[in-house]
Design a protein that fits this description.
Blueprint (H helix, E strand, L loop, with lengths): L5 H34 L7 H56 L1 E2 L3 H8 L5 H21 L2 E14 L3 E13 L7 E14 L2 E9 L34
Antiparallel strand pairs: 1-2, 2-3, 3-4, 4-5
Helix pairs in contact: 3-4
């Protein structure tokens, strides 16, 4: 029978402890080696994730393109509407002024001049002011009365918020030589300009190339030297 000494027993116990510690060390190493493996899938994206990201980017691009296209179309539509509003305003201003220029009577010539001097440029107003006495004398001497009616307008835009409007109108006149109403069609070319928030007449006259009305039938729309009045009834007819 073998009897272990105290030293041999201690060696045996130490050997047993070392053997028992070996599995624990191996287990710890395996656990440490397994930890990076668990993190590896999280660092990679699946194909479906990339597809989702691509679709999201495409949707954002389509949205931005659609917004820019809508914004451009909206601005273009707004510009077209504003142009239509401006054309209508210019046409209405020309209509109103054409009626002013075709409506007068020798019984109250001052009312005519006050009317046509409103809403015009300073240059056009000065022309009327300078010609008032001369035109008033013709109206009184020939006893002219006139009324007008607008038939149609044609608006042509010009650079810088300026419109040229051709107004077709009928004019009914009477005077000392022809007391019966006489109706004629006149074409007036009126220039309208936008000044601030309003519209202003800058020029008016017969349309270029049209045949002017008879001298004893209508006063010139644009202030200038008036025609000589016709002879009084019963007087000699001037030679042609």
């Amino acid at each position: 029978m073998l009897i272990k000494t105290e030293s041999e027993a201690d060696v045996a116990d130490n050997s047993d402890d070392e053997v028992s510690n070996v599995p624990e060390a191996d287990t710890a190493k395996k656990a440490e080696a397994a930890e990076p493996a668990n993190d590896a899938p999280s660092s990679r994206r699946s194909p479906w994730q990339w597809v989702a990201v691509s679709l999201l980017a495409a949707l954002i691009g389509v949205g931005v393109f659609g917004y820019l296209k809508y914004k451009g179309a909206h601005e273009q539509l707004s510009a077209m509407r504003q142009e239509e509003v401006s054309r209508n305003a210019a046409a209405q201003t020309a209509k109103d002024y054409a009626l002013k220029s075709l409506t007068y009577t020798f019984e109250d010539p001052d009312a005519f001049f006050h009317s046509v001097e409103e809403g015009v440029s300073p240059a056009l107003k000065d022309k009327y002011v300078n010609a008032t006495d001369l035109l008033k004398g013709v109206m009184l001497q020939a006893q002219v009365t006139s009324t007008g009616e607008v038939l149609a307008t044609e608006v042509t835009p010009q650079p810088g918020d300026v419109y040229q409007v051709v107004v077709s109108a009928s004019q009914t006149t009477r005077n000392l030589q022809n007391p019966e109403p006489r109706v004629s069609v006149v074409l007036l070319q009126i220039t309208i300009a936008k000044v601030g928030d309003g519209w202003q007449v800058t020029d008016i006259g017969p349309k270029t190339g049209t045949k002017p009305a008879n001298a004893d039938q209508v006063l010139p729309a644009r202030p200038g030297p008036p025609p000589a009045p016709g002879p009084a009834p019963g007087g000699p007819t001037p030679p042609k």
